[in-house]
Structures are given as structure tokens and as C-alpha cells.
Specification:
The complex is a heterodimer of chains A (319) and B (253).
Chain A lengths: L1 H21 L2 H26 L7 H19 L7 H19 L4 H20 L12 E2 L5 E2 L2 E2 L3 H23 L2 H11 L1 H6 L4 H27 L1 E2 L6 H14 L4 H17 L7 H15 L25
Antiparallel strand pairs in A: 1-4, 2-3
Helix pairs in contact in A: 2-6, 2-9, 2-10, 2-11, 3-4, 3-5, 3-9, 4-9, 7-9, 10-11
Chain B lengths: L3 E10 L2 E11 L4 E5 L6 H8 L7 E6 L2 E2 L5 H7 L1 E3 L12 H9 L7 H6 L2 H21 L14 H13 L5 E5 L7 H16 L3 E5 L3 H7 L2 E6 L2 E6 L1 H6 L1 H6 L6
Parallel strand pairs in B: 3-8, 3-9, 6-7, 7-8
Antiparallel strand pairs in B: 1-2, 1-4, 4-5, 9-10
Helix pairs in contact in B: 3-5, 3-6, 5-6
Classes of the chains: A mainly alpha (319), B alpha/beta (253).
């Protein structure tokens, strides 16, 4: 079973690694968007999938990262890739400040507040916040990223940059899932009172996972700004948050393969079925309804962690 | 010196006086029972000790340290672990991971050490795993580590809660109706488990409606009625106490 899925992932990885050689720039760019949304989905997955905190304003943290990169790059000519940690810091800080007073809210209440935060930020950016966000036109002239003096310009070059960032994200988040931290956020999703009663500082972990997810979205924002070279408030509207949320819920809450599949379905498929663009919302809506009825945990749900038990007891199942 | 001291602890919900000036001590390594008719305020007393409720007045002291209204997770770290009357397991997680939750407060690794998989983090994980397996074996749930908690029988779920509490390396465990939903055999085995917990040097405070368990296992019994303490003493003395008999009127022995 395990070998079979490793084999499938290996083949997918190999095909994707050489994809730019046989795809035209348009399709490579579609894959770039899929990759970017996969990173955003994975970061939101920590908050929504693992900790069970409903966050429908994730685009706000994506925006903070993108605007941090745009402002610092255009004003002070700092290379965009150097700004990755700075974007993580500003997005994380922003998330920490807004989450601190609202994080104790449950379910739908938290959901509504995060929607509000996302909208407030978008409107503030449109109104040229502090005179540095460029208003509704946004900021243009963001420089291209350079790696060892090599300028990343064309879609297939961005493909490998985004791909590398996605691989690092998967690698680190997989480790995070299988750790004390990963378990702790799962405990608070399952039963907050029991988690607190088992000695877990639930408010600390809620805040930590929220900040971590937001910081990662901030870094995705940095890459987005570098890829587009122009950003505007409309790139970070409520619909973006909805797409990220749907990627996590539809793909599989708490599951890395699920989120990756969700990104392909939500960002890749609409391009494949461009001819049916008018019916897109109808199909998505119907798909969501069907999913919520027949498979509430998502297409590829979270799988139980395995542990190195003595005497091969990991097989389990037998009472 | 007592391990746990309650001094005139009081809690009301709106107009209802749930716990009224209750004081009692729990001696180190003792097994103390808290009994009383339904609605007497037993679980509320537990919730006040473990910080799930905030008390209106009075004090809770653990090893002479005032822990009144501390947050629950700090109380657990200090050495008081509990189980719940209505079983509160992480139903969709494995039996093993439920016990690992108890190990959490004795571990240190954070998100970054986990992402970088530092040697210390690996060592800590291995130690926690060994400890969790030991606690599962202690309550008799070995071999079921990878089952989901929700697939266990009611009695086993109660044992799993005890294992999770023990995994936090407590000085005092608070068991809220540990025999609830257990058959006679399971209850008899539970008495053995409670004695073995005592042999490990851990103090036990429990609420139980099964009088045979309380009379057999406990060295001291505290009786509550309508939120107030009406009696306290050895099982034999409690059995003959006219106030207690009155409170339990209609019940045999």
C-alpha cells in the first residue's frame, strides 16, 4: 500500500519535473498558479485542517506579504527573494495582532471576524493606506527575482522557483504534522476542553498555528508579487479566501496530498474546461454539495500518523 | 502536610449555589472518595480544583501552593491530572495519540525544532512513545494502540482516559466516575488499577456512585449534599452516619 502510493507520487513528481519541456508557456503559467495556491492551501491547512479554526480571510495575510515585498522592493530596491523572511514576519505579526483578541471565538464567529478582517484590509489598501499602497491601482514595477545573478523572468523559470518553494513547504509541513506541535493542534480541534485538561496550552497553540499559517501565506505573497510585478487590492478579494478555504475542505482537511489535489481541481481544472467557463460556478457549487453529503472529510482525508511501535504492532486493527 | 487542601471553596451559577464553603484535605498517597446524591456539586468541586471553573471565593492549595483559578494546563503541569464524567477522548485519533496528549506537558519541542527535526526532538519523541506504551500496558490496553479511540468499548475508553491522565506524570489524579458504564468484572479490575496507582506513589481523588467500589477502595470519604459538606471520615464511619443515611434515603446500605 505504502509502496504503491510512493510509486504514484514518484511518477507524478517525475512528470512535473520535466513538464515545462513539453508544455507551452500558457500551461506552465497555469501550473505556476496551481503551485502558488497549493502553498497557500497548505498554509491555510495548518489553521483550518489541523487546528479546526475557521479562517475565511486568509487572502489578507497573502496581501500583507505581497504588499510588504512590493513596497520594500520598489522603495528601497531590496531583492524580492531576500524579502521572504521579512514578508513572513510582517504577515505573521499582522496575524498575531488581529488573532490575539478573537482567537477564543469558536467556529462560525471566528469565521465571520476573519471575513471582516480580509475585507477591511482590502478596502484599506484600496484607500491608499498611509499613502504607500498605491490605492486601487496598486503598486507596479516590482523587480524580478534573481538566483545567483540569474534573473527569473519567464513562466518556466518561475515554475522551478515555485516548485522548489512548494517542495520545501511540503517537506517541512510533513515534519510539523508528525510532531508534538502537530498532535497538539489536532487535540484542540478534536476537543478543546480535553486538550486543556491534558496539559495543552490551547490558546497558545491556536495563536501559534494561526501566526505560522499566516507567515507562510506572507511568503507566498512575496513570490506572487515577484511573479506579477504589479499587485492591486483586487488580487486579494474575498473570493481568493474562499478558493483557499475550498481547496482545503474539498481536497482533504489536514492532508497534504488532499490539499495538493484540491489546488489542482480548483485552479487547474477551470483552465482545462475554459469552454464551459459560464457553468463553472454551477459545477463547483454542485461538487461542493455532493462532497459535503457523501465525503465530508474531503477527497483525500487525513491519515492516521504511524509510530515506530515494537513488534510490528503498527499494523493494528486487530483487537 | 496535605497534598491538596480546599478551603471554603464556593461557586454559584446564577442563583444556584453549586458548591458552598466546602473544605477538605487530601493526604499524600491516599485514595479519597467524594460522594453525594446527584446534583450535590461533586463534579463542580473537581472543575474548581482543575481550573475548569473559576471559584467565587475560597482557596485551592496544592503542596501549600495557592492554585486557585490557575489555567488548567498549568495545573496539569504542576501535577494534577483528571478524567471526565462524560468521556472526553480525542475520538478520531488513535489510542496511542490520546495517551501522547498526556505526555505533552513533559515535552519541550516546538514548531521549529519539529520542522528541522533536531536530535533532541527525536529523542524526546521516542521517550514519549515509550512512556505512552507503558501507561497503556499499565491500564491493560496493550495491543490496541492503533485503534481509533471511538472504536473502544465504554469501559476501555474510561481506562484510556486514566492512561492519558497518568501519562502527564501527575502527583494527584482526579477520577470522575471511573466505573461509570463498567460491568462488575471491569469494576473489580478498576479497583486493582486504582490500588496500583497508589503503589506508584500517586494520590487519587475520585467521584463514584458505585458504593462497593468507594467502600473497598477509599481510605477517606467526603460526602456532599446540596453543595455543602455533610460528612467526612473513614468508610465505616460514613456508612453509619445518620446524616449520610438521610441524604441517601431509599438506598440500601
Amino acid at each position: 500500500m505504502k509502496n504503491k502510493s510512493m510509486y504514484i507520487y514518484g511518477v507524478i513528481f517525475a512528470v512535473l519535473a520535466v513538464a515545462p519541456t513539453f508544455l507551452n508557456p500558457y500551461w506552465v503559467d497555469v501550473l505556476n498558479n496551481v503551485g502558488l495556491y497549493a502553498i497557500l492551501g497548505l498554509s491555510l491547512n495548518l489553521i483550518v485542517g489541523h487546528a479546526g479554526l475557521f479562517n475565511l480571510g486568509h487572502a489578507a495575510f497573502f496581501a500583507v506579504g505581497a504588499y510588504t515585498a512590493a513596497i520594500l522592493n520598489t522603495q528601497f530596491a531590496i531583492p524580492v527573494l531576500w524579502l521572504l523572511p521579512v514578508c513572513a514576519l510582517t504577515a505573521g505579526l499582522f496575524a498575531g495582532i488581529i488573532a490575539r483578541p478573537i482567537i477564543h471565538l469558536r467556529g462560525d464567529y471566528l469565521c465571520i471576524v476573519t471575513i471582516g478582517v480580509g475585507e477591511i484590509l482590502r478596502i484599506a489598501l484600496t484607500n491608499d493606506l498611509f499613502g504607500i499602497t498605491g490605492g486601487p491601482n496598486g503598486i507596479f514595477g516590482i523587480s524580478r527575482p534573481t538566483v545567483f545573478g540569474y534573473v527569473i523572468r519567464r513562466p518556466h523559470e518561475f515554475y522551478y522557483l515555485i516548485g522548489a518553494f512548494l517542495m520545501v513547504t511540503i517537506f517541512l509541513f510533513h515534519r510539523l504534522e508528525n510532531s508534538r506541535f502537530g498532535r497538539a493542534v489536532n487535540y484542540l480541534r478534536e476537543d478543546e476542553t480535553a486538550a486543556e485538561g491534558s496539559g495543552i496550552n490551547t490558546s497558545h497553540y491556536k495563536l501559534a498555528v494561526f501566526v505560522l499559517g499566516a507567515a507562510w501565506a506572507g511568503m507566498a505573497g512575496d513570490i506572487f508579487a515577484a511573479k506579477m510585478t504589479i499587485i492591486a487590492p483586487e488580487s486579494f478579494n474575498f473570493w481568493e479566501s474562499v478558493v483557499m478555504f475550498a481547496i482545503v475542505i474539498l481536497g482533504g482537511s489536514g492532508s497534504i496530498p488532499g490539499v495538493l489535489l484540491g489546488a489542482v481541481l480548483f485552479v487547474g481544472l477551470p483552465e482545462v474546461f475554459r469552454d464551459f467557463a459560464d457553468a463553472r460556478m454551477l459545477i463547483f457549487g454542485a461538487a461542493m454539495v455532493v462532497m459535503m453529503i457523501v465525503r465530508t472529510e474531503g477527497i483525500l482525508p487525513q491519515r492516521p500518523r504511524t509510530y515506530a511501535l515494537p513488534e510490528a504492532r503498527n499494523a493494528g486493527g486487530a483487537p | 502536610m496535605s497534598l491538596l487542601e480546599l478551603e471554603s471553596i464556593t461557586k454559584s451559577f446564577g442563583g444556584l449555589m453549586a458548591v458552598n464553603e466546602v473544605s477538605f484535605d487530601v493526604e499524600e498517597r491516599a485514595i479519597v472518595g467524594l460522594i453525594g446524591p446527584n446534583g450535590a456539586g461533586k463534579t463542580t468541586v473537581f472543575n474548581l480544583i482543575t481550573g475548569n471553573h473559576r471559584s467565587d471565593s475560597g482557596a485551592v492549595r496544592f503542596e501549600s501552593k495557592d492554585i486557585t483559578n490557575w489555567p488548567t494546563y498549568r495545573i496539569v503541569k504542576l501535577g494534577i491530572a483528571r478524567t471526565f464524567q462524560t468521556i472526553r477522548l480525542f475520538q478520531n485519533l488513535s489510542v496511542l495519540e490520546n495517551v501522547l496528549a498526556g505526555c505533552h506537558c513533559r515535552m519541550k519541542s516546538g514548531s521549529f525544532t519539529a520542522m528541522l527535526r533536531m536530535p533532541g526532538e527525536r529523542r524526546e519523541e521516542r521517550a514519549a512513545l515509550a512512556r505512552a506504551l507503558d501507561e497503556l500496558a499499565f491500564v491493560g490496553l496493550q495491543g490496541q494502540e492503533m485503534q481509533l479511540a471511538k472504536n473502544l468499548s465504554y469501559g476501555s475508553q474510561r481506562l484510556l482516559e486514566i492512561a492519558r491522565a497518568l501519562a502527564s506524570e501527575p502527583r494527584l489524579v482526579i477520577l470522575d466516575e471511573p466505573a461509570g458504564g463498567m460491568n462488575e468484572q471491569e469494576t473489580a479490575a478498576l479497583i486493582g488499577t486504582i490500588r496500583r496507582i497508589q503503589n506508584r506513589g500517586i494520590t487519587t481523588l475520585l467521584i463514584e456512585h458505585d458504593m462497593s467500589l468507594v467502600m473497598k477502595a477509599c481510605e477517606k470519604i467526603v460526602v456532599l449534599e446540596f453543595g455543602s459538606k455533610i460528612a467526612e471520615g473513614a468508610p465505616e464511619a460514613i456508612k453509619g452516619d445518620p446524616k449520610v443515611i438521610e441524604a441517601y434515603l431509599g438506598m440500601e446500605d
